[in-house]
Structures are given as structure tokens and as C-alpha cells.
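Lab channel / #folding
Pinned by the channel admin:
"Please post every new chain as: sequence first, then the C-alpha cells as a reply. Keep commentary short and put observations after the output so the thread stays searchable."

First post following the new format, from NK:
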Amino acid sequence: MSTIRSHLTTVLLVCTALGGCATKPTTLYQWQGYQNNIDAYFRADTLSPDAQTQRMEEDLQKIRASGGAVPPGYNAHLGLLYGQQGKLDQFAQQMQAEKKQYPESETFMDFLLRNFKK
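Reply from TO:
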């Protein structure tokens, strides 16, 4: 009886350990297509700033809808795209959002707000 009990205990421990390995890892931020958008930004021949902005806004809505966290730099990058298009109100709004979410970026965001030229 004791041997059966020890075998059952071993099987339960192995199943528990394997079940723990099967869980989906959690990520701190929801990246969506952010990395592809950065690539498109630096490869100016692929997508216009307007198309990049559209993609980032759509991804931002998905991130918010899922309750995920926007990664560092996301709002600042989106703001720079708005700035390139001459949409300075939206540029400033995105820089403020970046500062609010990541207070450590305040000095740099303030610098961009003071010195951005289209």
C-alpha cells in the first residue's frame, strides 16, 4: 500500500511540474507591431509616416483593449510621427502620455517638446 501511495505521489508531482511548464509566460508589455513600426520608420522607403501612424494607432487600441501595458517609447515614437506630419497638438499629446506613463523620460520629453521642428 505504501509503495502505491509513493508512486501516486511521484506521478502527481511530475504532473504538477509539467503543468507548470505548460503555462503561457506573461510579458510586461504588449508590443504588437511596434518593432516592425520602428523598422519602417528607419527604412523610410517602406511606409509613409501617415501609414505608420495608422498602424501604431490601431496597435495602441489593441493594447488598451487587452488591458496591456504600452511599452516604453511607444507614445514618444507615435508623437514623432505626428510631428513629421505637422500635427503638433497630437505630437505634444503623445509626449505628455509618454511622460505620464514613464516619469523617468520627463527630461527628454520636455527637451523634444521645446525643440521639435517639423
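NK: Residues 39 and 57 are 16 Å apart (CA to CA).
TO: also worth noting, The chain has a mean pLDDT of 84.
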